[in-house]
Write a structure and sequence with these properties.
This protein is mainly β and 171 residues long. It contains 1 helix and 11 strands. It is globular.
Length: 171
């Protein structure tokens, strides 16, 4: 069996989107944003991602802090994108992320939505409108230990430095 991985890393000035439609997605959250019942946890999260409209892919990193500071022995059960909902309102699950086991109190996870997990047209629309939130659910906090409302900003054709241009597998 023959396999090939092609990974090309470029500086920002070398990158071009087919039509320049790229969005910076960011959300900062804590337990006070959880609906319907705000949590008392000291946990926080920061999500940063790039949404590329031509390829319909969202790729980023979720950083979590103090997950277990006042919640020892708990475990993450789900990480979900939910909407449509404005801050303080509840939406429905749009996409679930496969979680790893054994999160540390301060941990991070790469998140990629593409291919069969890609956002549907209505999900893209509500993401751009700021009506999508990310929530981390645990066994002790089934409604969410932290929640972050996501905001999007149109960026000028991948202006984030040293982005990875492409990853392909042929095998």
């Amino acid at each position: 069996m023959f396999g090939m991985i092609l990974l090309v890393a470029c500086q920002a000035e070398d990158l071009e989107s087919t039509n320049g439609a790229a969005y910076w997605v960011e959300g900062v959250g804590d337990g006070t944003q959880v609906v319907p019942t705000p949590g008392s946890s000291k946990a926080t999260m920061h999500f940063t991602a790039l949404y590329d409209e031509p390829t319909n892919s969202l790729t980023g990193t979720l950083k979590m802090e103090n997950l277990w500071e006042d919640n020892e022995g708990d475990e993450v059960t789900a990480i979900e994108f939910c909407g449509p909902a404005e801050n303080g309102k509840t939406g429905t699950k749009m996409k679930g992320i496969i979680t790893k086991s054994g999160y540390e109190s301060n941990d991070s996870q790469r998140i990629s939505l593409s291919g069969y997990l890609a956002l549907l047209p209505d999900e893209v629309r509500v993401l751009k409108e700021g009506k999508v939130y990310l929530t981390v659910r645990t066994r002790n906090y089934p409604d969410g230990i932290v929640r972050a409302q996501l905001k999007t900003t149109l960026v000028d054709s991948f202006d984030k430095p040293a982005m990875v241009k492409s990853l392909a597998w042929d095998g």
